[in-house]
Design a protein that fits this description.
Layout: E1 2-3, H1 14-25, H2 35-55, E2 62-65, H3 68-83, E3 87-91, H4 96-107, E4 111-115, H5 126-132, E5 137-141, H6 155-164, E6 168-172, H7 184-187, E7 191-195, E8 206-210, H8 235-271, E9 276-279, E10 289-294, H9 299-308, E11 311-312, H10 328-332, H11 337-341, E12 343-347, H12 354-373
Length: 375
């Protein structure tokens, strides 16, 4: 089986797994003052330090969560509820974690502007953000890399727009971490979300960078994590997150160009097929994402044929898997419902080889042919 769904999740790094097993041995509560608690606390502090170094932040600016979804919710709800009623800005093609939080705030009386992405590319421009800002705007939330298209957004320019108007800026960097550099000061982000299982760490562990001095309303009140996320920390998981991020960042100089070369190889082979079109920005795109639409194909049959022939890919976000509705991202960039369903996201990773990419392209050609016959 050829696995090309790294945007959905990644296998656990062997060194990370070994480190987590050591962390399980420190079974004390990190909040306890005795020797068992202190041993666990030391590993927890080490985890904060590792994540902070990777992001160019301070250890106390890192808040551990159960994953990217909780980190997004804490950022969006946390800012809004701390500052009172007002206006927020996001895009139509954010991850469901952000969109669901925004919809929740609308029910509480907040107003939200949903920026329309550029057709086909999915790009959202700083000028759009600037036009949407109002005197009562509290927060702009724009992802670093779109999880379905791979389009990379101009975060630094958006952050400058926000800073000039005194508006906080959050980025969901779940798809960027371990693939692109993420220095928070360079990006200008006030809040940044991560999920460990996207960069070869464990599932069920995430983190939110919260700039020093920023007030958030705790969604889960408690004394842990600087009072922003109550509950005893999942030490093995967050310890795994810290090491996984550290390793992923260290591998960036060699892994990013390797993935880019593989992406271009796969993309060229797929787009050479008749009736196959690219979704996402042609150049400003993550080195691991290739999303294409096979015009005239039956989407369900296409994915089924890929799976039967040994290629694991997806039709979009794993969080929407099994939904009868087409991808909200693809329809927002101008794809019809039928086209959206006939789209496939291939995402590459640390273990992907040239031979796998070539075989996946060959299998895709056959799968498209079969699924078109079935239409």
């Amino acid at each position: 089986m050829i696995y090309l769904d790294y945007a959905a999740t990644t296998p656990l790094d062997g060194e990370v797994k070994a480190a987590m097993e050591r962390a399980f041995a420190a079974w004390g509560n990190p909040s306890s003052v005795h020797a068992y608690g202190r041993a666990a606390k030391a590993l927890l502090e080490e985890s904060h330090e590792r994540v902070a170094r990777a992001l160019g932040a301070r250890p106390r600016e890192i808040v551990f969560t159960s994953g990217g979804t909780e980190a997004d919710a804490l950022a969006v709800y946390g800012v809004a509820l701390a500052r009172g009623r007002g206006h927020l800005v996001t895009s139509q093609i954010e991850h469901s974690a952000v969109l669901t939080a925004m919809k929740g705030l609308e029910r509480l009386g907040y107003e939200v502007s949903y920026l329309t992405p550029e057709p086909r590319t999915g790009m959202v421009y700083p000028e759009q953000v600037a036009e949407a800002l109002r005197p009562d705007t509290l927060l702009v939330s724009l992802m670093a890399v779109n999880n379905e298209l791979g389009t990379v957004y101009p975060l630094r320019e958006v952050a400058e727009v926000c800073k000039a108007r005194g508006v906080l800026f959050h980025t969901d960097a779940v798809q960027a971490a371990g693939t692109l550099p993420l220095e928070v000061k360079e990006l200008g982000a006030d809040l940044l979300s991560l999920a460990a299982h996207k960069f070869y760490g464990p599932k069920g562990a995430g983190a939110l960078y919260v700039r020093k001095g920023l007030e958030l309303f705790p969604v889960a009140p408690g004394k842990q994590e600087q009072g922003l996320r109550g509950g005893t920390e999942n030490l093995p998981a967050v310890y795994g997150l810290g090491l996984a991020l550290e390793r992923a960042v260290a591998l960036l100089p060699q892994e990013t160009p390797r993935l880019l070369a593989l992406r271009e190889r796969l993309e060229a082979a797929l787009l050479a097929l008749p009736g196959v079109e690219l979704n996402g920005h042609p150049t400003a795109r993550s080195p691991k994402h290739v999303n294409v639409t096979a015009l005239g194909a039956d989407g369900e049959g296409l994915l089924l044929n890929l799976d039967l022939m040994g290629v694991a890919a997806s039709s979009g976000s794993a969080c929407a898997s099994g939904s009868l509705e087409p991808s909200h991202v693809l329809t927002a960039i101008g794809r019809s419902k039928a086209e959206a369903k006939a789209s496939v996201r291939f995402s590459l990773g640390r273990h992907t080889t040239e031979a796998e990419v070539d075989e996946a392209a060959r299998v895709f050609a056959q799968a498209v042919e079969r699924s078109r016959v079935a239409v």
